[in-house]
């Protein structure tokens, strides 16, 4: 998961290794976008990032220099989701880790500057209306009885034994291969389910399981991210990533398994996604949703499960165990429906919380124009502070709490498969 943002106002100067880059050194174009044929638009390792703190009045868009990436910070003055016309700033590749260590959220939009542009026109009059309450209890009930904590624990023990799952590392590629094989094995009971790798140039590939719908081409997506990162030396140091986001990975995998075991045959397409490179600025999910936008895929709902296992601080503070429901930068109608699913199918309640802009992969779906929502293990104040270190380990997690997230995930899939 991307760390919480600092409310830092973006200045019109960008400092790189102590040297300010101002308009005299790198002038701003009059358009918020560089032309596609501009000689600097695709430097060898250019990076363009959406960052969390750009104000509506700042124009922090710079021509890239060699070794730079472009970042976009979220508006402080608006809760609207970013679009292709929003401003970005160019920063070096090394700035990503510096921003992460400082708690600044961002989207690395290099190559995905126009994500959402096509859907902005297509979906103007096609707003999705979500139910007021669940109504497929008879179908959901047997699926929930198939869920077990045993499978989640066994899978997470394997997943956290990789030294790290950093998306640029050999370990990240190996863990991604294991996950792909595990999803394939799980899906083998139904030959109609297609499991594929969405290939990325950095080596760790996203995994997508497609359960075909019987009646429509609409698609419901459930996501988690498979990568982990130690923010000090991500390619070298250990990052077990048990909670972030090993917990979300095995939670959604268990819901996927239980649905298949029950012979799930949805009306709409239902897909499970395990994204690569969330820790690099939502790179994997942006690539996936950019492709879906090009293919004119009709994604009617996307739910992200990022960190589902830690409730120790909530319990220590005397609060009731609860699912954290994110309320900012999400689709309000879908979020309200998720609250009703928790109330109907989970043994614990929900608590509302906020995470700021671009805190996980649901932001990529939203930017592409698709309704998205995000749930987490608790309020952000009570969430796991061991993430992005060697201490994000399995012994700190509650599998009973993860079980509640698995129930939510399976119920979400069934209920919206009929929308």
TrEMBL record:
Gene Ontology annotations of biological process type: proteolysis
Cofactor or coenzyme needed: Zn(2+)
InterPro entries referenced in this protein's UniProt entry, alphabetically: M28_fam (IPR045175), Peptidase_M28 (IPR007484)
Enzyme class label: hydrolase
Comp. bias (Polar residues): 21-34
Domain of life: Eukaryota
Region (Disordered): 14-39
Record domain Peptidase M28: where: 207-412
EC annotation from Swiss-Prot or TrEMBL: 3.4.-.-
Similarity comment: family membership: Belongs to the peptidase M28 family. M28E subfamily.
Full protein name: Peptide hydrolase
Species name: Saitoella complicata (strain BCRC 22490 / CBS 7301 / JCM 7358 / NBRC 10748 / NRRL Y-17804)
